[in-house]
């Protein structure tokens, strides 16, 4: 579960490294976000020569969490880190590559393009 002030790793080639959640979207009283949810993030660190700068506010989609989530068939999945992929204001990806594995839940919610760009699907 991701909430405000959570530090997140960015797993695409946009140039940003670490972001902090500042708002959970899709509901005024929503406190926690899970895999596949949209959040607002502020960039905390980035590469030197990237278009994305420190302090920039962007949207992101959560793709991995440490908190275990349960699928409909009863299996539980958890990862070693909390990770996101950056989006622009029109909910389109900024990056062209994704590093690491993704889950099927991301595809069903928003972007089916994410699946074709990832290395592996769980």
UniProtKB/TrEMBL annotation:
This is Large ribosomal subunit protein uL14. SMART domains: Ribosomal_L14 (SM01374). One of its GO terms (cellular component) is large ribosomal subunit. Transmembrane segments: none annotated. Keywords: Ribonucleoprotein, Ribosomal protein, RNA-binding, rRNA-binding. The gene is rplN. NCBIfam families: rplN_bact (TIGR01067). HAMAP family: Ribosomal_uL14 (MF_01367). The keyword Ribosomal protein applies. One of its GO terms (biological process) is translation. Belongs to the universal ribosomal protein uL14 family. It holds the Pfam family Ribosomal_L14. InterPro entries: Ribosomal_uL14 (IPR000218), Ribosomal_uL14_bac-type (IPR005745), Ribosomal_uL14_sf (IPR036853). One of its GO terms (molecular function) is structural constituent of ribosome. CDD domains: Ribosomal_uL14. Binds to 23S rRNA. Forms part of two intersubunit bridges in the 70S ribosome. It comes from the Bacteria. Part of the 50S ribosomal subunit. Forms a cluster with proteins L3 and L19. In the 70S ribosome, L14 and L19 interact and together make contacts with the 16S rRNA in bridges B5 and B8.
């Amino acid at each position: 579960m991701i909430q405000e002030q959570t530090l997140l790793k960015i797993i695409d080639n946009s140039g940003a490294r670490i972001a902090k959640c500042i708002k959970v979207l899709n509901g005024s009283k929503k406190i926690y976000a899970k895999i596949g949810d949209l959040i607002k993030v502020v960039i905390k660190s980035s590469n030197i020569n990237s278009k994305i700068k420190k302090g920039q506010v962007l949207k992101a989609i959560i793709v991995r969490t440490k908190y275990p989530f349960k699928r409909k068939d009863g299996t539980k999945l958890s990862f070693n880190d909390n990770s996101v992929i950056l989006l622009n204001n029109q909910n389109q990806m900024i990056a062209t590559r994704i590093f690491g594995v993704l889950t099927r839940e991301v595809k069903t919610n928003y972007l089916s393009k994410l699946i074709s760009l990832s290395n592996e699907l769980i």
